[in-house]
Write a structure and sequence with these properties.
alpha+beta; globular; FdhE-like fold; about 300 residues
Amino acid sequence: MAMAGPDVAGPDAGRARSPWAAHRRRAEVLSERHPFAAEVLALYLALVDVWEDGWDAAREEQPEPRQLARWAAERTAPPVVKATEVAGPGTLAAVTRDLLAAGRPEEPLAAWLAGGELAPAARYLARASLRAPLVALAGDAGAACTEDPSPRGERRCPDCGGPPQLSFRSRAEDPLMSGGRRLACARCGQSWSYSASSCPSCGETSGARRTVYAERRAGPLVVGRGSGDRDTASGAGAEAPTFPHLRIDACASCERYLLDVDLSRDPRAVPEVDELAALPLDLHAAGSGLSKITPNLMGF
């Protein structure tokens, strides 16, 4: 998993071992660094509070995996809606409040676990409400999902059958080697190894059909085609890229993309958080006619 290991200090042992300690710190840093992402990250930080409490509750109450949608609808969906009202956009807060008030919040949660298509606000509520208990279930998360992961192959999460949210690399890639790239599941948060030369959406392997877009410099953002090694600013007066460790991995065959996080370029990065903050890269991809394999938690 692309998550921080447990911390052991502090008076609250459950909270101290939170899987989101590093996520919280990174979101606070990026919120200061990138004002354009401050609103998104403020909501994310509010959700981290909800997830930590929900993670503790799920570990204590140990809900049955097949009853997870019902459990989360009662235990985590209400505080998710409250956090969204406090820190989120007004429209999103209103829609999620209406979904909860309608008395059927379990339906979008069950649909997300089953791999169903959802409207953006319903998908947000489902993802935010299920995140903590799915992390608490860990290796048993797949048992909560009614979608059979077996036919999905290597482009889907081997644990729950969920789609990839992003990819990340823990070291600089050797063009002659494979296995350094991992995909992170949009549903349960687990990660798995995946070829660096294949499209995570359709499996395309032709280099002529796959394109990497990398930032060339910062302010205003300039993104261009590049190879596996990103172009970086150089020369006197050159501006450093805003996202030197991120790139757009795109496929012309399916016209889909995801963001790739290179941890060797920024070991402090937390893929889930850095992907949320990279709004300009998502806007560039959308302007190029690409659609994301899976919109992230905030819908980008």
